[in-house]
Design brief:
This protein has 177 residues and is an alpha+beta fold. It is built from five helices and six strands. The N and C termini lie far apart (45 Å).
Length: 177
């Protein structure tokens, strides 16, 4: 949480301080405190279970979402019935609330996983629980290092939209096994 306050302090010193910066800092603090499962979640990660699907449907839906949002697969691993897809880091222009915090560069990546949930004994068909994660790294200047800062509300909204699109696609497709 300290980096957020450093941003806030720098902004207050450089621009004389604004109510918007104070409110954004407080909102980020509340979101990071209230959301998640304690110490297991990263402040720069949006994670949600989007639903269930067959292995086949998961692969098709994941591919559609990655193409729609212009992500490239970096790593794909299959562990028996489990599938893990991780994208390359993708550059973005900072969103308005990120720019207001002094963020100059943004990168995001998506991780989509399918884990076995149950197997229908009568048909021997397996269903998977599908989990979506979106991560963000930011730079505070052109020569600074990439940092994991608390995700802003606008970036969280972006990842929520990606996850919702995946959920709709999974639910709308006829289950093929």
């Amino acid at each position: 949480m300290a980096p957020l306050f450093i941003l806030w302090e720098n902004k207050m010193i450089n621009n004389g301080g604004t109510l918007k910066i104070i409110l954004t800092s407080l909102i980020c603090l509340v979101i990071s405190t209230c959301a998640g499962t304690g110490g297991l979640t990263k402040p720069n990660r949006h994670m949600v279970v989007v639903g269930d699907g067959s292995y086949y449907n998961f692969q098709n839906s994941a591919e559609k979402i990655l193409n729609r949002y212009h992500y490239t697969v970096y790593r794909r691993e299959e562990y028996g019935p489990r599938l893990y897809i991780e994208t390359q880091w993708k550059d973005h222009k900072p969103l308005d609330d990120e720019f207001d915090l002094g963020i100059s560069h943004v990168q995001t990546r998506l991780i989509i996983e399918a884990r076995p949930k149950m197997r229908d004994q009568s048909s021997n068909r397996a269903m998977n629980t599908v989990k979506f994660s979106g991560e963000v790294l930011v730079r505070l200047g052109p020569m600074s290092d990439w940092e994991e800062l608390v995700m802003t509300p606008s970036r969280k909204k972006y990842f929520k939209q990606c996850a919702d699109d995946l959920k709709v696609d999974l639910r709308g497709s006829i289950q093929k096994f």
